[in-house]
Specification:
CATH class of the largest domain: Mainly Alpha
Number of helices: 10
CATH architecture of the largest domain: Up-down Bundle
Structural class: mainly alpha
Order of helices and strands: HHHHHHHHHH
Length: about 230
């Protein structure tokens, strides 16, 4: 009986190793499938933002600004300038902590960079096309909110990579991103319409890249893992 546990361990150990290799290989295989329902959150945000983007004095976006001026006229913080980048950087912190994402670091970085380019291009074009004055009157670059788009882009990556293992991750990621949007309004730098559309652009940019990314960098590693599983 004393020797049965070591013997069982020797029998189980190879299968445990193969299981770990299979788990690692599955990470390289991971690729979200396009689903129309996945467009609902970003589309809803963008449509909502556009619908409240009226210029009339009695418009909803101006009413929100009036409420802000009445209750938070002295509010100012620079935290949003830094917090916007926290969602897109967190996966690398998790890497250091040994918390694995669905996608390997090379492909995940490529996805983040491409999402960044798409998001920034969309924001730049809209800002320079609409020429909407910020609520504080500082510049004609109000619509949409780039800070919010940045935060929600990163939040979408966090959610996609860790939502299956950590059910609370989407709530935490989008909670931080929402805080950035709220601070942009509290700082009187953006209207609610700017924030809603920015959030939609951020999420949509990430979703599109996940659906179209080719995952070229993981092929060699995937082959190496399969070779190791044979021994």
């Amino acid at each position: 009986m004393k020797h049965s546990i070591p013997v069982l361990s020797l029998i189980i150990l190879p299968f445990a190793g193969i299981s770990q290799v299979r788990d690692s290989i599955s990470n390289f295989n991971y690729r979200p499938r396009f689903e129309y329902r996945a467009l609902v959150p970003s589309a809803s945000l963008i449509i909502s933002g556009i619908s409240v983007n009226g210029n009339a004095r009695e418009s909803f976006k101006n009413e929100v600004v009036e409420e802000r001026d009445e209750h938070l006229s002295r509010f100012h913080t620079g935290i949003d300038n830094y917090l916007q980048f926290s969602p897109v950087l967190m996966p690398y912190v998790f890497d250091i902590a040994g918390i694995k994402s669905k996608t390997d670091i090379a492909n995940r970085t490529a996805i983040a960079l491409k999402s960044q380019v798409v998001m920034m291009a969309a924001v730049y074009v809209l800002k320079n096309t609409t020429h909407q004055l910020r609520p504080d009157g500082s510049a004609y670059t109000s619509f949409p909110s780039g800070h919010t788009a940045q935060a929600f882009m990163g939040a979408a990556i966090l959610s996609e990579e860790y939502k299956d293992r950590y059910k609370w991750m989407p709530y935490a990621a989008y909670g931080v991103a929402s805080a950035v949007g709220i601070m942009r309004m509290a700082n009187n730098r953006h209207y609610i319409s700017d924030v809603l559309v920015g959030a939609g652009i951020g999420i949509l940019s990430t979703k599109v890249i996940y659906w179209t990314h080719q995952y070229k960098w993981g092929r060699k590693n995937k082959k190496e893992l399969r070779d190791k599983s044979l021994f």
